[in-house]
Design a protein that fits this description.
- By secondary structure, the chain is an alpha/beta fold.
- The protein folds into two domains: 225 residues, Aldehyde Dehydrogenase, Chain A, domain 1, CATH 3.40.605.10; 180 residues, Aldehyde Dehydrogenase, Chain A, domain 2, CATH 3.40.309.10.
- Helices cover 41% and strands 19% of the residues.
- It has 15 helices and 20 strands.
- The strands form five sheets. A seven-stranded mixed β-sheet has the order 10-13-14-9-8-15-16, sandwiched between helices. A six-stranded mixed β-sheet has the order 5-4-3-6-7-18, with helices on both faces.
- Strand 11 and strand 12 form a beta hairpin.
- Helix 3 runs antiparallel to helix 6 and helix 9 packs across helix 10.
- The longest helix has 27 residues.
- It is globular and about 85 Å long.
Amino acid sequence: METHLAIQRTFFNTQATKDISFRIAQLDKLNKLLKDNEQLLYDAIYKDFKKSEFDTYTSELSLIYHDIKDAKNNLKSWARNERKPTNIINWPASSYVQKDPLGVCLIIGAWNYPYQLSFAPAVAALAAGNTVILKPSELPLNTSNVMAKLVNGAFNPEIFKVVEGGVPETTELLAQNFDKIFFTGSTKVGKIVYQAAAKNLIPVTLELGGKSPAFITKDCNLKMTAKRLVWAKFLNAGQTCIAPDYVLVDKCIENEFLQAVTAEIEKEQFSFHNHNYVQIINNANFERLKAMIPDQKVFFGGETKASDRYIAPTILHNITFEDACMQEEIFGPILPVISYDNLDDAIVEVQKFPKALSAYVFTSSSSIRKKVFNTLSFGGGMVNDAVMHITNSNLPFGGVGNSGIGSYHGEAGFNCFSHRKSIIKKGTWLELPLKYFPHSSSRLKWIKRFLKL
């Protein structure tokens, strides 16, 4: 691991990556590499957890292609120096902010969207002029293998290198003195990454998770709410960091809501055979999720099959905040439904959880929307939809508190991997003597006049 880092640092210090055309060339290479090998990528991820070509393209590859295109189209403007006003005590001068790449970056990807959550931050890092060591998750082994094969076969290891492995390899990587660490995964592991980075004062971005609530009010469009909520929750079999984790529904429409959601699930016919559903990633997660399903509280679904790592889309009702499914992030195809009589009381209960990565409100009331969004702290969210905010690269994506540190996507991603260096360029044709020795009461009076404090 020391060798990988040393090779990249030596190359970074040549200043080659600071050239915009060099960065665009790396993005072009990655774009072509992925497009030329799409079938390999589809085959690998299907072997890992039966993710279809349709879902792999729409929820992973298309987002990467968009990020590359967005970066190429905007890179010159993102990298341009930003002019800033100069205060009077520095006059005559001009001030600006210069965007510098941080250096050698470690990116640790996640297993649930193994391509998108590995390559999207890598695109941002390369666009910002950094070199990248990428450590994909080892859980989807075939996708990790194909990423290593493609990247290491096409890129100079001085610029972009994939390192495979599990906990020992990741631990060794975290012991190195990188210039930036970007991690996507659980809050538990995020804390380990943060502690490791602190030893060398390495800046980090942590994209984590949490229990993201969805509020359903009595004045919502119930049919559209059910359609969008079911898609967002059961996409990737619920293994999505920004999926609605649980629902809070106004008690006066609870029964209608449950029926509408059930009808939508039946209509979609989620299954591997229909290529619109995936397996639970491994046996450990399968058993963890199975234990969250109390038979007496299943409104719909609940079927499991260990040999296929299959858990049917499941709706739980009569749930309280004390139930087992409310004690941790679910990260699976289980949707607890909690009814409320008073929205303010429901918001208070949600505030007892750590800050979520996302929050959703299905309502036609602007006052309710404002109340929820102004009261709760969370990473990002939507009104009358869920999950789709991740597709807008004009919005920074990230968490707050336990759900993450920092953000990326679009220009926010470029800034995530850049240092904003402040510069003042002074003229030499004039210099006021006020700050120099000897100090005097008259000079102090003039300084106070200039500063107007």
